[in-house]
Amino acid sequence: MAAPPGNPLPAFTLVATDLDGTLLRGDDTLSDRSLAALARAGHAGARHLVVTGRPAPRVRPLLDDLGGRGLAVCAQGAQVYDAGADRLLWSVTLDRELAETALGKIEAEVGEVYAAVDQDGVDGLTLIEPGYLMPHPTLPAVRVRRRDDLWCEPISKVLLRHHTLTDDELAATARAAVGSLATVTMSGPGTVELQPCGVTKATGLALAADHLGLSPDRAVAFGDMPNDIPMFDWAAHGVAMANAHPELKAVADEITLSNEDDGIAVVLERCFP
Which runs of E-coded beta strand occur in the chain? Predict the structure, then answer.
């Protein structure tokens, strides 16, 4: 279903958008043009689903800005969140013993890493150990005294940083070291993550779409990082932002303008003229 940029596209019934680096601008705001384009799609009968690495508690305020009372796919697909009822329709946690083992295997290869976790639940906290720096300083986090404190409650994922390795290098090494213990994703600058094995944005999106009676053959997905690749594989049409990682651009059906230049709106205005 790929169409050259600028050509008409089908009127999709599902619009799936990542947040950071995709729908959101660098200051975590939404442009008026993007909001208008999403509203236009909604008036035409399309459903908008946020599909993000952020956990449900970090998505709730943004859904309010979007006027969304429906579903959102959060935590890299580990959570399907019902904003209207403020509850998780579905969630899967990362076994904490497996997470500790995975961290040990990674550190055996690359030396010390700094870790954080997103707790499960609609009120789960983001905990960060000493030395970990939040890639998004606007997102709230609670610093703990030692790594053992990260495992006090069920978690949806682990976030990793290394003092010298690039994100690509850390992600590649982590995948080789972790194997089937967890799924390794890279979702943004300074954001390499471990999540439950087999869980991706596509698995969460498929669950949410099935709940809504929507199918992938009428879906368009927007993203900017390698963690969006499974979502592009699931949807009929994948659109990478101009600022996207090369791995995502390589599998995209189309490349639009950057998140700062309303790249999503440019495409949706073609879909819903």
Answer: 14-17, 47-51, 71-74, 79-82, 87-91, 114-119, 126-128, 142-143, 155-161, 183-188, 191-195, 219-223, 237-240, 254-255
Q: In the numeric block, which tokens belong to residue 205?
A: 């999106």
Judge contact between 155 and 196, C-beta under 8 A: no
pLDDT in tens, 223-237: 999 999 999 999 999
pTM of the model: 0.92
Q: What is the mean pLDDT of each run of 10 residues along the chain (273 residues)?
A: 52 94 93 95 94 94 80 96 94 96 97 97 96 82 96 97 95 96 91 95 97 96 97 98 97 98 97 90
DSSP-derived letter for residue 45 is T
Question: Measured at the alpha carbon of residue 209, what is the angle toward residues 207 and 212, in degrees to the nearest 5?
Answer: 110
CA distances from 121 to 47, 70, 114, 169, 266 (A): 24, 17, 23, 31, 35
Neighbouring CB atoms inside 10 A of 67's CB total 12
Q: What angle do CA 156, 161, 164 make, to 5 degrees?
A: 165
The tokens describing 243, both together, are 């600022």
CB atoms within 10 A of CB 203: 22
